Amino acid sequence: MKNTKVFLGLLICLQIIAATASDLFCQKMEWTCEKFGDKYVDPKFIVFNSVGDIFVGGERGVYRSTNNGNNWTLVNSEWNITSLVIDFDGNLFVGSRSRLLRSIDNGETWVEISTFQVTNLCINSDGELLAGFITGFSGGLFISKDKGESWSKIENGIVYRGRFTGNA
User: Fold this and answer.
1) Half-sphere exposure for 86 (CA within 13 Å, toward CB)
2) For residue 40, what pLDDT is reported?
3) Which of 17, 79, 86, 142 has its CA 20 to 30 A from that of 64?
């Protein structure tokens, strides 16, 4: 019985110490909404490159900040962005409901590399680009080993469940 009381007392002390440490080391976070010019932006994706430039993508384009978010520049006015990634070489990829774009110069210029609807993008550990595409009544997961110039469908155990579009 005595050991149980000592254990419970020690447990309570540890909880008090943990709560006190939490109060000491945690700061109250205050968030502010950044205004991107006069445009409404719904930031869905935030990525940064190796030199610290920040890119924010949302429903109305991609914005870039080169000074830790103090100022923002619209670098892509693509609407309905579904994904935003940066590869190991600093290439920026923007997927939307109508196409896939790539910038090799920090968002200054863009090249269309696909006209498929992009559902998602990611870069794997080998630097390859993976994309979920929808093409009419089909789609699936695709991989590009050459920065989006060519694509191969991944079909090993992954099945695309299409959706019906049209009139019933």
Assistant:
1) 22
2) 56
3) 142
